[in-house]
Amino acid sequence: MQRYLESLARGHAPEGLDRLMTSPEVARILSISERSLWQLTRDGVLPCVRIGRSVRYTARSLEEWIRSREASGGQQRQLPKEQERFHGI
Question: pLDDT by residue (tens digit) across 16-37?
């Protein structure tokens, strides 16, 4: 986390799994509409990071969510409680 904050302080955008992505980026990655993405987010199916009124997604959470769907044959499977994240900053 410290390295992430230092990177932000230097004006560098984070890379890799800690990068925050916007709704249009995530919808494009998942090949779904932004409206469908919002429904998944609103229903608590897809983890997100809330910053004020903005909603962002981490690559790590997105990857975990995709893997959970692959493992269950595409069926929605609830993530363990420690992975259900709605962060507010």
Answer: 767 899 999 999 999 999 999 9
Instruction: Name the domain count of the chain.
Output: 1
Quote the pLDDT of residue 82: 43
- Residue-number span of the structural domain to which 77 is assigned: 20-88
Q: Write the CA distances from 26 to 19, 22, 51, 61, 69, integer angstroms.
A: 12, 6, 17, 11, 16
CA pair distance 62, 20, nearest whole angstrom = 10
* Inside any domain, residue 1: no
3-class SS of residue 10: coil
Residue keyed to tokens 């997105």: 62
